[in-house]
Design goal:
Keywords: ATP-binding, Nucleotide-binding, Transport. Residues 5-246 form the ABC transporter domain. Belongs to the ABC transporter superfamily. By secondary structure, the chain is an alpha/beta fold. It has one domain: Rossmann fold (3-Layer(aba) Sandwich), CATH 3.40.50.300. It has nine helices and ten strands. Helix 3 (102-112) crosses helix 4, helix 3 (102-112) runs parallel beside helix 5 (148-160) and helix 4 crosses helix 5. The protein is globular and about 50 Å long. Bound molecules: adenosine-5'-triphosphate and magnesium ion. Magnesium ion (MG) binds at residues 45-46, 170. Residues 14, 17, 21, 39, 41-47 line the site of adenosine-5'-triphosphate (ATP).
Length: 254
Amino acid sequence: MTPVLQLTDVTVRYRGAATDVVQGVSLAVEPGQSLALVGESGAGKTTLLRLLLGLTRPTSGTVRFDGEPLTPRDRRQMRTFRRSVQCVFQDPYSSLDPRRRVAAIVAEPLRSLGLDSRKTAAPKVATALERVGLPADTASRYPHEFSGGQRQRIAIARAIVCDPRVLLADEPVSALDLTTRVKVVDLLAELKQERDLTLVMVSHDLSVVASLCERTAVLERGRLVEQGATEQVLGAPEHPYTRRLIGSVPRLPV
Ligand SMILES: Nc1ncnc2c1ncn2[C@@H]1O[C@H](COP(=O)(O)OP(=O)(O)OP(=O)(O)O)[C@@H](O)[C@H]1O
Ligand SMILES: [Mg+2]
């Protein structure tokens, strides 16, 4: 099967920086697969996700979508890409525009892709809000009226409203308290299952990784040091860095 997203020997060096923050990374995301990107702070996880989203351009190497090199100038490809690949960010406070009602926020992908007017978007917005477990009157309210967990549900509703094939998520639950976290992880798992979504997720919470992602890739200072089935990578890590990463996770005394 053609990978839906693929990085081939990708390197990123930010302007003015002395070193590469991503070095020679090759990675393929198969349709329907879920992949976790793990590694310490600064390892380059967000940069990798931004590469997959087309927001950061590689300094060298290739990013492919459905087998074709991602070309921001190609408007037709970008349209298909944006419809197919949506994202959820870490901070549900800064990722939702406080001046807009939830209806407008969730409808944004439909409007910017030119798929719907305000009127035709409304039923799709209602369906998406219902799907993420929010009451119908959510649409007419503002983000500040909601808790962090509810806001992240709004962000997820916005991400699924145009029926994407791929969801990219950067630490989607790490700003949430533990019980809320579990509920949002359950929601992501359900969506993945029922829509056959491809999920690429950055998380430092290895229990979230283990419950949501079939595959795990481990990044150490911009290099991919290990990747494979999550059970294998987290259960029987081969690379010393992965072992240290797993060993550094605090555990509750039982
Ligand atoms: N826009 C930028 N300009 C310059 N350097 C950047 C930029 N964004 C990130 N970096 C640097 O690139 C490296 C990787 O950053 P990145 O945000 O990808 O790491 P991360 O693994 O997501 O870390 P965290 O777990 O803290 O979110 C860091 O050293 C960071 O300082
Ligand atoms: Mg990050």
